Amino acid sequence: MRKIFLTGMLLFAAAWSASAQYYYDRSKNPDRVPVQTTTQDRSRPSNSGSYSKFFFFSWDGNKPLSNTSFVDQASTFGTRLGFRKRINDEDKLWVGGDFGEFIYKQYFPYQTYQSGTQSLSTDLYNYAYNYSLTVNIDYYFLPIENLITPYLGLGLGAGYYKFAQYYNIYGTTGDSWGFLLRPEAGIVATYKKNSPWRLKAAAHYDYSSNSYKDLGYSNFTNLGVQIGIVKMIR
């Protein structure tokens, strides 16, 4: 009886061991269902979302739309430095900030200016130094790892403007702070997907409440174009 019992126990243990080995071998077990990849997972690139922030540095050219009696020439002396951070998993909403500066300047040839009974003959040099600091939100229409990604952006912040007019040996200077609104549209492009280096090109419209009555300068507006380099960071 004892031998029969021991023999039965050995057979039971062998059968259980074989069953366990069969169950945990995925290649041989038809009852074990593997994890399925959904259609949504397959459609999204495996490296999507690998970058969560970026910096950029741009050349910024501008053309004044208002106060053209003071300065109406376009400025090529402009730069923009910015930062963005992704705030959703689809790479479409990014927030950050920009710091920008550019200079308008214009020369008016020698002529005579009349004011009441007084007159002044001189040439004029007008300058407008523009500095801006904005909080920005951008919406990208495609994940940013694509070769070309269009976007729309909006910047809200403050503008600081310094004005100067020089004539003969004299001059008038002043400065002003104002609220700045800057809608923007552009693209971020690269030569290969998921590259850490990109190019950025955009057009923007600026409206600022700055004014300086002594020089007749009020409610600054302009159009601008920027072209720059983007560095992506994980």
Quick recap:
The chain has 234 residues and is mainly beta.
Describe the overall structure.
- The protein has helices at residues 2-23, 39-43, and strands at residues 53-64, 78-86, 93-115, 118-140, 148-167, 170-189, 197-208, 211-212, 217-218, 221-233.
- The chain is mainly beta and 234 residues long.
- It folds into two domains: 1-34; 42-233, Porin, CATH 2.40.160.
- The strands form two sheets. An eight-stranded antiparallel beta barrel has the order 1-2-3-4-5-6-7-10.
- The radius of gyration is 33 Å and the shape is elongated.
- Mean pLDDT is 81; it is low at 22-28 and 39-48.
Write the topology of this structure.
Blueprint: H1 2-23, H2 39-43, E1 53-64, E2 78-86, E3 93-115, E4 118-140, E5 148-167, E6 170-189, E7 197-208, E8 211-212, E9 217-218, E10 221-233
Number of strands: 10
- The chain-level structural class is mainly beta
Reported CATH architecture of the largest domain:
Beta Barrel
Using the CA coordinates, give the radius of gyration. 33 Å
Distance between the termini: 71 Å
Structure characteristics:
single chain, 234 residues, mainly beta, Porin, 8-stranded antiparallel β-barrel, two-stranded antiparallel ribbon, 2 helices, 10 strands, 12% helix, 58% strand
